[in-house]
Amino acid sequence: MSPENTRTWQNWAGNQQATPQRVVTPRTAGEVAAAVRSAAAEGRTVRMTGTGHSFTGAAVAEGVLLRPTALTAVRSVDTATGLVTVEAGLPMHALNRVLDEHGLALANMGDIQEQTVAGALQTATHGTGRDSAGLASQVAALDLVLADGTAVTCSPQERPDLFDAARAGLGALGIVTAVTWRTVPAFVLRAQEEPMKWDEVLSRVDEFDAANEHFEFYWFPHTEGCLTKRNNRVEGPAEPLSGFRYWMDDQFLSNSVFGLINKVTHLAPAATPFVNRISAKALGARTYSDTSYKVFTSPRTVRFKEQEYAIPRGELVPALRELRSLFAKRDWRISFPIEVRLLPQEDAWLSMAHGRQSAFIAVHVYHRDPHEDYFRGVEDLLTTLGGRPHWGKLHTRDAFYLEKVYPRFGDFRALRDELDPERRFANPYTRQVFGD
């Protein structure tokens, strides 16, 4: 375990910074425990970062910052049971490659794979799915270091309350050192992407949800244009995009050109509706199949800020219609499409889909654009529907609100009082969402 001189930390979007008192890179769970005990002796708080893909201050460290870059080992792979144990700092893209090499896969994923496994899990990263839920529902066990420096393992059989709380624990109950994933046999996904008009998508959203394993869509503000995405398992063999088509669609158009568009609309916001209409019309239908994680995830090089809320599934269409009406009432000029995803209910206490079938509405702005008025307007709408904010994406909710929308929120806080009474793992964000 070695202290580092470089202390300045910044997240991917550039909207969160920290200068902790000390930075340490532990190489083992034992060194994590030693760092926690050392921080306690000095009266400091301690947090472990991931790769900084949260837009909230979830990873901000005021006292001791633990970097996970040396905690990346694959501890075990059991192809018979599908149980795979990896250390907390292993990036999702590395996990995906390891699983694929052993004929395994995660049943569902979010749309990027740059996060560490612990960072993605602790903020309840999800994806979209009719039957397959988010990452928190694909975990078999967690290894944690608690505030007193002890190392524990929790699972449905061993400390089940801690397991249900810590799977989406924001690092507030302990520092995750390893995750045991419950994987499935590797599979091929067929992706069908098709432009569609707003009215058709909203009239058929229930049909698309029922008929597809994974359905999502994007709406381009100020237009009638949407892009629908339907992913379903097929026997294979895979029929991926050609190298040129992948480069043209996913690298050049979706990143290079889209980045240029956002630079233009940043300088000339009034041009946004016109530019969005061109973008929506430029989208073409495409169908391809590939290894599951290559279909679930896409490269994202244009930096942005994001807010996402989960609402009851039955409220989706009325919420979207009301959200669209806000564009007619407010002076918003938004270049980023609005993303809609669906998820079955989960049992992790702080999963955004806890106890209810959920729809997720995500709004974005270019990282250099102001977000406050837009995000606040969307948040005001979705919180009237009992919306739950994504823990890693910008929001203004506090404990007073959150305890009303999470049935097990009080149980989580009580467990935190028991395990971390001195708030060794606290930071400004945990103080906001938990109240102390």
TrEMBL record:
* The protein's name in its UniProt record: FAD-binding protein
Highest taxon of the source? Bacteria
- Give every FAD-binding PCMH-type domain span: 16-186
Gene3D superfamilies with a match to the protein in the record: 3.30.465.10, 3.30.70.2520, Uridine Diphospho-n-acetylenolpyruvylglucosamine Reductase, domain 2, Vanillyl-alcohol Oxidase, Chain A, domain 4
SUPFAM superfamilies recorded:
FAD-binding/transporter-associated domain-like (SSF56176)
Q: What organism does the UniProt record list as the source?
A: Actinomadura bangladeshensis
Per UniProt, what is one GO molecular function of this protein? D-arabinono-1,4-lactone oxidase activity
Q: Which pathway does this polypeptide act in?
A: Cofactor biosynthesis; L-ascorbate biosynthesis
Swiss-Prot/TrEMBL keywords: Ascorbate biosynthesis, Oxidoreductase
PANTHER family linked: D-ARABINONO-1,4-LACTONE OXIDASE, L-GULONOLACTONE OXIDASE
Write down any Gene Ontology CC term.
membrane
| One GO BP | L-ascorbic acid biosynthetic process
Identify its protein family. Belongs to the oxygen-dependent FAD-linked oxidoreductase family.
